[in-house]
Amino acid sequence: MRLLKDPGGGMVDEALAILAILASHQEGKVAIGQAEPIPTLVEVIRTGSPRNRENAAAILWSLCTGSAQYIKIARELGAEEALKELSENGTDRAKRKAGSVLELLQRVEEEVNS
C-alpha cells in the first residue's frame, strides 16, 4: 500500500494493476485485506489518474463483494461521493466498477434499514 501513497514514485500504475489482478482471487483478497487498503483505495478513487481510479474501483469492488466490513469502512470514508463522480466521469470500466460498488453500498444500507 505504501507504493500507492507515493504519487511521484512512478510505481502507482503498476502496483494498482497488479493488485486488481490479485483481488480477483480469494487468496489475493485476503492478502490485500491484511494491508488495510480501503482508505488508500478511496483516496486513489478521489484523486488518481483515470487508469488508477479505474483499478482502485475494481479492487474496491472485489474486496467489498461479500464483505460487509469493507463496505462499512468504505461508506465511513465517504467512498459513495467519490464513486458517484467516477461513475459519471470515469473510463467505461471505471464507470461499471464504480456503479457495482455503489450497488453494494446501497444494498447493505437497505438491509440495515429494513
TrEMBL record:
Q: Which domain of life is it from?
A: Eukaryota
Methyltransferase keyword on record: no
Task: Please report the name of this protein according to its UniProt entry.
Answer: U-box domain-containing protein 14
- PANTHER family associated with the record: U BOX DOMAIN-CONTAINING, U-BOX DOMAIN-CONTAINING PROTEIN 14
Q: Which InterPro entries match?
A: ARM-like, ARM-type_fold
Write out the entry's keywords from A to Z.
Ubl conjugation pathway
